[in-house]
Amino acid sequence: MLLVLCVDLDDDLGRKTGTETPVIGRESVRQAAVALATADPEDSDVNVLFEGLHLAETIRDETVEVAAVAGVDGREVEANRRVGEEVDRVLAELATGEDVRAVVVTDGAQDESVLPVIRSRVQIDGVRRVVVRQAQDLESMYYTIKQVLDDPETRGTLLVPLGILLLIYPLTILANLLNLPGTVFGLASGLLGLYLLARGFGVMQWLDQTVERTRTALFTGRVTLITSVVAAALMAIGGVNGVQTLEETRAASPDALGVIEVIAALLFGAIQWFAAAGVMSSLGRVTDEYLTGEFRWRYLNAPFYVVAIAAVLHGVSGFFLGEASLEFLAFMLSGGTLLGLASTLSFAVAESWAQRSIETA
Questions:
Q1: Contacts of 212 by beta carbon, 8 Å cutoff, 6+ apart
Q2: CA 67/CA 171 separation, integer angstroms
Q3: Which of 89, 99, 111, 308 has its CB 3.0 to 4.6 Å from that of 9, i.e. a possible disulfide?
Q4: Mean pLDDT computed over every residue of the chain
């Protein structure tokens, strides 16, 4: 038996039409192809499905079956694994006593990366890559370029580096007029480097998500937005106070400070402000959880944990700086530990009672 296997590695069929894969049988594949063509006529996987049906019609000297399998969008390893699982399901459903061989139909080299996975399950007689004839025409090429440039993701990836490179020449002329010949290349390479790093580490996507979360927080009245701003300000004040404490300690010490003393001085001056920032941020988060109906008693542990950790760090840093006695350090260590244990047990009991009351009601 010959199996014509249509591969959709990024699962356009499932995402755009809701069709569950694998799709087995000529009529089922035909219906899936029509559904995808209706949802997105420009999708190249439409041609893959129809090419699979065309191949099945042209081969008449043996039994032919058609099936379509799909992967996962944007995750190559998981996509290959899913294609392998769907090929196994197709072979199990065929349940024929004949040896099954396959002809794989794809729309490009990306989908063909899954060939080793398919080859490990069934013998592959051939690979058919579908290329639309109109793509060779100048008109279609113009249309393709236009479509690429209309896509925001592609537009940012192609045009921003190209724009930076094209700016080098006019910036060079301007730099020569200002007697700054080396500045241009440094500025241009710096901009290009920052852009590539931002793309490589996903900073642009992170910024978009942050802006979207901030907009949502503004319109839904989330307290976290205000407390986060206050917490950031407290952190900044703590950092400045920590540096001032370090400078004062250096001025008062006749000898150079070691690494431990430097860290202790920074902590001793900043930890109170950092603790206030942590308490403020955690209280805002707890308030939002309560307003959305997702409050849990154990969430109240956060501000107590922050105070306990701050007390321990304050005692340790003060001891290393000579600002606190050994008894004070022992008191802070014991107090911080007891505060954490007490809050954990108290809120665990409170949550247990609350859960019991809900179950009783």
A1: none
A2: 57
A3: 111
A4: 82
b/e code 98-121 from CB counts within 10 Å (16+ = b)? eebebbbbbbeeebbbbbebbeeb
Count other Cβ atoms within 10 Å, centred on residue 235: 18
CB burial of 18-35 (b: ≥16 within 10 Å; e: otherwise) equals ebebbbbebeebbebbeb
Q: What tokens does 136 get?
A: 């060779």
d(C-alpha 180, C-alpha 178), whole Å: 5
More confident position, 22 or 196: 22
DSSP state, 120?
Answer: T
Distance CA 28, CA 35 (A): 11
Residue with tokens 């990024």: 10
Please indicate, yes or no, whether the overall pTM of this predicted structure exceeds 0.85.
no
The set of residues, in sequence order, having a beta carbon less than 8 Å from that of 68 and lying 6+ positions away, is: 5, 6, 7, 8, 13, 21, 22, 23, 29, 32, 49, 52
**Is 315 in contact with 271 (CB distance < 8 Å)?**
no
Closest CA to 101 of 118, 77, 83, 84: 118
Q: Which residues contact 25 (CB under 8 A, 6 or more apart)?
A: 65, 66, 67
Backbone phi, psi, residue 4, to 5°: -90, 110
pLDDT tens by residue, 43-63: 888 999 999 999 999 887 788
